[in-house]
Structure formats: C-alpha cells, structure tokens
Write a structure and sequence with these properties.
This protein is mostly helical. The chain has one helix spanning about 20-60.
Length: about 100
C-alpha cells in the first residue's frame, strides 16, 4: 500500500462536479450571451463614432464662403405704436438716489 494504485477505491456514489449542473450551464450561457452583446454593441458604437468623426473633418475642410449677402442693418417693418411696450421700462430704482 505504498503507491496510490494500491489504495482501495471508495464505492460510494460521487457527487457531480458543480460545473456540470444544468443551472451552472444556464448561468454560463447567460453570462456568455451578455458579454457577447456588450462586445458587439461596443464595436458598433466605436464604428459609428469613428465614421462620424471622419465625416465631420471632411465637412470642416470643405467649408465655403456664403453666397448670400448678409445684411448688417435691420429695419423694423412694424408700426411702433402697435408693438409691445415694457411696463417696467420707466421704472426707477429707489436705491439709485442713495449714490
């Protein structure tokens, strides 16, 4: 009985290993699927972001001068009498007299 081969074998029924149970397999399948979805989503998001950056740089390189003449002055086409009047425009701050 000096070697391992000479030891007697236990005849009791052995318990199955935990990684062979159906519950463990389902949890492993769910975790694998979740990891796969996260990886696919990350790759798709990276591709979309990188493509949008490429198109943004193309747009900024190809900027053109405006072809429409820009008017700097604006004339109000409406009658001033019919426009809204701010009721607080004539308000005087009583603390201004303290200065």
């Amino acid at each position: 009985m000096d070697t391992i081969h000479d030891t007697p074998v236990n005849n009791q029924e052995q318990k199955p290993l935990p990684y062979t149970s159906p519950r463990y397999k389902r949890v492993l399948l769910f975790a694998s699927f979740t990891l796969f979805v996260i990886i696919v989503f990350s790759v798709v998001a990276f591709v979309i972001v990188s493509q949008s950056k490429k198109t943004d740089t193309k747009v900024t390189k190809e900027t053109k001068e405006p072809t429409v003449n820009l008017v700097t002055e604006y004339e109000n086409p409406f009658d001033k009498k019919s426009q809204y009047v701010n009721p607080f425009s004539g308000y005087k701050n009583p603390f201004d007299s303290l200065q």
